[in-house]
């Protein structure tokens, strides 16, 4: 499946916030996580069925815990599903994800205002 076909299938087969033109992203990071999931599926890291199961589980858990029922937290569920799926496949760990998040936070703190945040800006990695 080509990239446009995979993205269209993913956008069609999931309850992504959308308008008449397709998926709607309120923030750039939402489009990035969408694209990342498409890429990982195309590369065979996980199947569409595995993704649907992981995302569905995250949405059900969030709703059960009183999460947003209006879909405003939809892409947060994508991030959670992606993290848990990659951990389940042994491609990362909770510690690995937490460490990378901490590194990005330090990089953001060390980056001058108006400059792009780069992981290389983490003062603990230099």
From TrEMBL:
InterPro entries assigned: CN_hydtase_beta-like_N (IPR049054), CN_hydtase_beta_C (IPR042262), Elect_transpt_acc-like_dom_sf (IPR008990), Nitrile_Hydratase_acc_put (IPR023808)
Residues covered by the Nitrile hydratase beta subunit-like N-terminal domain: 14-105
Transmembrane segments: none
Taxonomy, superkingdom: Bacteria
SUPFAM superfamilies reported in the protein's UniProt record: Electron transport accessory proteins
Signal peptide: none
Protein name: Nitrile hydratase
Origin species: Bosea vaviloviae
Lineage: Bacteria, Pseudomonadati, Pseudomonadota, Alphaproteobacteria, Hyphomicrobiales
């Amino acid at each position: 499946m080509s990239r446009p076909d995979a993205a269209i299938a993913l956008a069609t087969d999931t309850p992504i916030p959308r308008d008449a033109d397709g998926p709607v992203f309120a923030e750039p990071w939402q489009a990035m996580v969408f694209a990342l999931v498409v890429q990982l599926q195309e590369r065979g890291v996980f199947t569409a069925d595995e993704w649907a199961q992981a995302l569905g589980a995250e949405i059900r858990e969030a709703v059960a815990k009183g999460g947003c029922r209006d879909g405003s937290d939809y892409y947060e569920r994508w991030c959670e599903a992606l993290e848990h799926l990659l951990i389940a496949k042994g491609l990362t760990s909770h510690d690995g994800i937490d460490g990378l998040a901490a590194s990005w936070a330090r990089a953001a703190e060390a980056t001058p205002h108006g400059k792009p945040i780069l992981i290389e800006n983490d003062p603990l990695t230099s």
